[in-house]
Specification:
With 270 residues, the chain is of the alpha/beta class. Helices cover 50% and strands 13% of the residues. A five-stranded parallel β-sheet has the order 2-3-4-1-5, with helices on both faces. It has a two-stranded parallel sheet with strand order 6-7.
């Protein structure tokens, strides 16, 4: 609706993790560089935690986009599964035969592939999103996968991405062996007030904005107060604000349009 009115080429505030819209705040840049450092140096285990809606999915897909050459990658988005299901999912992501229910044979199949990739100077990376939802049994299986190695380096680089609860899970005594193997850690927090404004402008620019719509300073402040710098909430309130502006025929969006959008999001009405 508002996309055509404002002359935009694409919806600027979708909540889907499109890497084209990745905005590198200071924290996002540091998280990105920590992940790439851990992978390139073959540290084995990398742990990234972030608040809900802080942009971990988009960051993950941006890293995957960066790792196109000399890397083979597997992405697990929903790790609520059994160890055998995990093994089969990893093999399937790597375009390998995932048939069978014998865990040992599945691991052997993966190990054979990892050795082939290492011989070809390729790095294999496993990303597990929503890792805070993994069972202890599944976390133990992931730890065992980190045992696949040569004398020089780990054959499989594992990136665990999750909400802050992941840190609490890994602090448990029974998971100490896994925790001790994690050598790269980073917590991704919300963006600040000035970054929130830059984030909004960035997404509008990527979507093809030629200056329409624009936001007033009070509008930016209201968006930040509501969202507290969480990108998912910023997207939600900006999407509603643009819709409000379209309905009212306004190119310059102010505090009133943002307040109307917030009321709509909260189901409060007017």
């Amino acid at each position: 609706m508002y996309q055509e009115y404002y002359g935009l080429e694409a919806p600027p505030f979708n909540i889907t993790p499109d890497p084209r819209y990745q905005f590198f705040s200071r924290r996002h840049r540091q998280a990105f560089e920590n992940i790439l450092f851990g992978i390139s140096e073959r540290k084995g285990f990398i742990q990234i935690t972030c608040e809900v809606g802080a942009g971990n999915c988009t960051l993950c897909r941006k890293v995957l986009e960066e790792l196109r050459e000399d890397y083979s990658t597997a992405l697990i988005l929903n790790p609520v599964m059994t160890p055998i299901q995990l093994m089969r999912s990893i093999l399937r992501e790597l375009n390998l035969d995932d048939s069978g229910n014998d865990r040992v044979r599945l691991v052997d199949r993966l190990n054979e592939f990892l050795l082939e990739q290492a011989h070809a100077n390729r790095v294999v990376v496993l990303f597990i999103d929503e890792a805070q939802d993994m069972s202890e049994e599944l976390l133990e299986q992931v730890r065992l996968l980190s045992n696949l190695e040569t004398d020089q380096h780990k054959l499989l680089q594992i990136v665990l991405i999750g909400q802050p609860e992941l840190r609490d899970r890994l602090d448990q005594q029974e998971l100490r062996q896994l925790r001790q193997r994690i050598t790269v850690r980073y917590h991704l927090g919300p963006i600040n007030r000035h970054e929130t404004e830059a984030y909004i402008q960035h997404r509008l620019l990527i979507a093809g904005s030629n200056g329409r719509p624009s936001f007033s300073n009070p509008a930016f402040r209201a968006i930040y107060r509501y969202s507290r710098g969480v990108p998912r909430l910023i997207n939600a309130v900006c999407d509603k604000t643009l819709l409000c502006g379209y309905v009212q025929g306004r190119d310059h969006l102010g505090w009133w349009q943002v307040r109307r959008a917030i009321h709509d999001l909260e189901g409060q009405g007017w």
